[in-house]
Amino acid sequence: MNRDNERLRQFIENLADLMEERGFPHMAGRIIGAFLICMPPHLAQEELAELLQASKGSISMSTQLLMRMNVVERISIPGQRRHFYRLRENLWKGFHAEQIKHLCREREAILDGLAILEGEPVDMKQRLLEMLAAADFVLEEWPRLLSRWETQKDELIDKRLTEMAQDAKEK
């Protein structure tokens, strides 16, 4: 295996480790890693199995999970008999929106905990109060952050492309 293939495999594994820290199964993270760097930006299950050196069953289970999580979508290509998979458009916006939904559920659990401790000293509630304040802060700031991202996204991507072109010229 050449060095570029080793770097590719290492990137996929590193991405899988990061996604696993976010609660994804390792194989699902590997699939996301593969989709982030493959060209064209879609692969059939058989291609994923070969690239990731994994069983078709494992790939199938993970792609189904990622589809239910709205991370991956199945597509058909004219003239092809098999289905292909790819990352959804605007994936990261949806990905973070799911995190906000989870944060709202956490906030409800925190409020339940505070209700259980009603009448108890503030010291007993301190950890819950800190979690509640943090959740409220993120939920309040999130819409502004998303709005800024939407208005600046193209500019930020163009900036990165310009930097990459300059780096390539310097090498």
List the helices and strands and how they pair.
Elements: H1 3-21, H2 26-37, H3 45-52, H4 56-68, E1 72-76, E2 83-87, H5 91-116, H6 122-170
Antiparallel strand pairs: 1-2
Account of the 3D structure:
The protein has 171 residues and is mostly helical. It folds into two domains: 3-87, Winged helix-like DNA-binding domain superfamily/Winged helix DNA-binding domain (Arc Repressor Mutant, subunit A), CATH 1.10.10.10; 91-170. Helices cover 74% and strands 6% of the residues. It has six helices and two strands. The chain has helices at 3-21, 26-37, 45-52, 56-68, 91-116, 122-170; strands spanning 72-76, 83-87. It has a two-stranded antiparallel ribbon with strand order 1-2. Strand 1 (72-76) and strand 2 (83-87) form a beta hairpin.
Shape label? extended
pLDDT < 50 stretches: none
Structural class: mainly alpha
Number of strands: 2
Q: CATH superfamily of the largest domain, please?
A: Winged helix-like DNA-binding domain superfamily/Winged helix DNA-binding domain
What is the CATH architecture assignment of the largest domain? Orthogonal Bundle
Domain count: the total is 2
Question: What's the oligomerization state?
Answer: single chain
The number of helical elements comes to 6
The top-level CATH class of the largest domain is: Mainly Alpha
- Percent of residues in helices comes to over 70%
Strand content: 5-15%
Computed CA radius of gyration, to the nearest angstrom: 21 Å
Quote the distance from N terminus to C terminus.
26 Å
State the strand order across the main sheet.
1-2
Biggest sheet character: 2 strands, antiparallel
- Average pLDDT confidence is 92
Q: What is the succession of H and E elements?
A: HHHHEEHH
Q: CATH topology of the largest domain, which one?
A: Arc Repressor Mutant, subunit A
